[in-house]
Amino acid sequence: MKSTQYVARQPDASGFIHYGEAEHQVWNTLITRQLKVVDGRACQEYLDGIEQLGLPHERIPQLDEVNRVLHKATGWRVARVPALIPFQTFFELLASRQFPVATFIRSPEELDYLQEPDIFHEIFGHCPLLTNPWFAEFTHTYGTLGLKATKEERVYLARLYWLTIEFGLVDTSQGRRIYGGGILSSPKETVYSLSGEPEHLPFDPIEAMRTPYRIDILQPLYYVLPELKHLFELAQQDIMGMVHQAMQMGLHAPKFPPKAA
Ligand SMILES: [Fe+2]
């Protein structure tokens, strides 16, 4: 695990998490700005989830508020975690239909980008689609497979996660749209991903597993699902068999420059 400057907030005796006024203000700035940017760019299932969640604009939501909606929709809930968690904990949570949420928000200095997933990324980026049964099923299957996987297999699974749940695009009757939460919580990447600048390829799970990525740059390549339901269908297939094929075939050459030392 890497280190972080952020510390997740703990709940009080009644389970309520207190944030400072400046932190609520960061949430307000982020959600107000991003709701405008995702309009016409996010897939309809995501926008339906945003509507169902009815997130507050003026304050950081409590996890219970999100849980009431998620639980009714798909049986999922969010789980409070520290700023960074080990892979093992991550897979255990997903396998029990719990999505990890670190209860801290980025500082105003890191408004546009931070390396750690904060509460805005997790709730605004991921929770809307966790109201969708197809997306929820895929995420759960992913967790159960990851829990049983070896360390080496998990690296291949992580690339599949990155290029779907975090950075996936999908074709819809309205045109090409975004479903990845890593994109949808970033104003810059939401615009850039559909700008025509980065490469788009039809989604192929084995190819995604073979694609190296960097977490600290805009993605040079996105994989496009034919429809969101494809994730549900993928969850019924032999994903670990695909991991083994990808391991045999090896990694693609990166499409990004090496990280500066
Ligand atoms: Fe994420």
UniProtKB/TrEMBL annotation:
<dbReference type="InterPro" id="IPR036951">
    <property type="entry name" value="ArAA_hydroxylase_sf"/>
</dbReference>
<protein>
    <recommendedName>
        <fullName>Phenylalanine-4-hydroxylase</fullName>
        <ecNumber>1.14.16.1</ecNumber>
    </recommendedName>
</protein>
<dbReference type="Pfam" id="PF00351">
    <property type="entry name" value="Biopterin_H"/>
</dbReference>
<keyword id="KW-0408">Iron</keyword>
<dbReference type="InterPro" id="IPR018301">
    <property type="entry name" value="ArAA_hydroxylase_Fe/CU_BS"/>
</dbReference>
<comment type="pathway">
    <text>Amino-acid degradation; L-phenylalanine degradation; acetoacetate and fumarate from L-phenylalanine: step 1/6.</text>
</comment>
<dbReference type="InterPro" id="IPR019774">
    <property type="entry name" value="Aromatic-AA_hydroxylase_C"/>
</dbReference>
<keyword id="KW-0585">Phenylalanine catabolism</keyword>
<keyword id="KW-0503">Monooxygenase</keyword>
<keyword id="KW-0560">Oxidoreductase</keyword>
<comment type="similarity">
    <text>Belongs to the biopterin-dependent aromatic amino acid hydroxylase family.</text>
</comment>
<feature type="binding site">
    <location>
        <position position="121"/>
    </location>
    <ligand>
        <name>Fe cation</name>
    </ligand>
</feature>
<dbReference type="InterPro" id="IPR036329">
    <property type="entry name" value="Aro-AA_hydroxylase_C_sf"/>
</dbReference>
<dbReference type="GO" id="GO:0004505">
    <property type="term" value="F:phenylalanine 4-monooxygenase activity"/>
</dbReference>
<feature type="binding site">
    <location>
        <position position="126"/>
    </location>
    <ligand>
        <name>Fe cation</name>
    </ligand>
</feature>
<keyword id="KW-0479">Metal-binding</keyword>
<dbReference type="GO" id="GO:0005506">
    <property type="term" value="F:iron ion binding"/>
</dbReference>
<feature type="domain" description="Biopterin-dependent aromatic amino acid hydroxylase family profile">
    <location>
        <begin position="1"/>
        <end position="261"/>
    </location>
</feature>
<feature type="binding site">
    <location>
        <position position="166"/>
    </location>
    <ligand>
        <name>Fe cation</name>
    </ligand>
</feature>
<dbReference type="InterPro" id="IPR001273">
    <property type="entry name" value="ArAA_hydroxylase"/>
</dbReference>
<dbReference type="InterPro" id="IPR005960">
    <property type="entry name" value="Phe-4-hydroxylase_mono"/>
</dbReference>
<dbReference type="GO" id="GO:0006559">
    <property type="term" value="P:L-phenylalanine catabolic process"/>
</dbReference>
